[in-house]
TrEMBL record:
Keyword match ATP-binding: yes
Organism: Gordonia amicalis
UniProt KW keywords: ATP-binding, Nucleotide-binding, Transport
Pfam families on file: ABC_tran
ABC transporter domain location: 2-227
Family statement: Belongs to the ABC transporter superfamily.
Species lineage: Bacteria, Bacillati, Actinomycetota, Actinomycetes, Mycobacteriales
Designated name of the protein: ATP-binding cassette domain-containing protein
Length: 239
């Protein structure tokens, strides 16, 4: 389980996240929703050890990030499409990460095939489209075969075929017992695949509920989300 309890982050003396408490169980696909600037990316980066918390705790099967002997085999992260040096090839980038993380380099070919980049693996990243860079970021997250996966807006830049591919991949990963936390603005994809949704607004959790419970009596997911983001009381919403 990924367990987040009482997490707060302050930047320049200002609270960006305040008392965030939630979790992601094994086999669960959880989407993190919220308007721009509500703290979604900060939360994901804090979970991944990029930003230090001011208070609270984050546990991966009972261990803090600093206690993980090989973090890349416990948590796989894709926090943006600019993670690879533009002059490197996808194969070189992933091989370097594998060696740095204590991951067998044979895994590189496996993830390149899994994300559909095998045929362009030796092209420089600078020549990749946005969708191809998204696939490379997802390959990076999958490299260590981690049980916890953190993805920030992985749908952006994907074409229709790519979106359908990613939809199936995420569901397969969850069904295989992995725990996924994904920030997204694409409510249609959330409605199709989410097990649970967590809504952030102004650094606070305003909703945390299974998808069907979250939608409740609202007309659709969009209406439920807007109510939750506004802090209105409805199924699964904490006012």
């Amino acid at each position: 389980m990924l367990d987040i309890n009482g997490l707060s982050v302050r930047v320049g003396g200002q609270a960006v996240l305040d008392g965030i408490t939630t979790h992601v169980d094994d086999g669960e696909l959880v989407y993190l929703l919220g308007r721009n600037g509500t703290g979604k990316t900060t939360l994901l980066r804090t979970i991944c050890g990029v930003i230090p918390p001011s208070a609270g705790r984050i546990l991966f099967d009972g261990k803090r990030f600093a206690e993980l002997a090989t973090p890349s085999t416990v948590i796989g992260m894709h926090l943006g499409t600019d993670g690879a040096h533009p002059g490197h090839t996808a194969r070189r980038h992933l091989t370097w990460l594998a060696r740095a993380g204590g991951i067998p380099t044979g895994r590189v070919a496996e993830v390149l095939d899994l994300v559909g980049l095998s045929d362009v693996a030796d092209r420089r990243v600078v020549d990749y489209s946005l969708g191809m860079r998204q696939r490379l970021g997802i390959a990076t997250a999958l490299l260590g075969d981690a049980r916890t996966l953190i993805l920030d807006e992985p749908v952006n830049g994907l074409d229709i075929d790519g979106i359908r591919w990613l939809r199936g991949l995420l569901r397969d990963l969850a069904d295989d017992g992995r725990r996924l936390l994904i920030a997204s603005h694409h409510l249609d994809e959330v409605a199709r695949t989410a097990d649970r949704v967590v809504v952030l607004d102004s650094g606070h959790v305003t909703a945390d509920a299974p998808l069907t419970e979250f939608i409740g009596g609202h007309a659709d997911l969009e209406e439920a989300y807007l109510a939750a983001a506004a802090g209105l009381t409805s199924a699964g919403v904490t006012p």
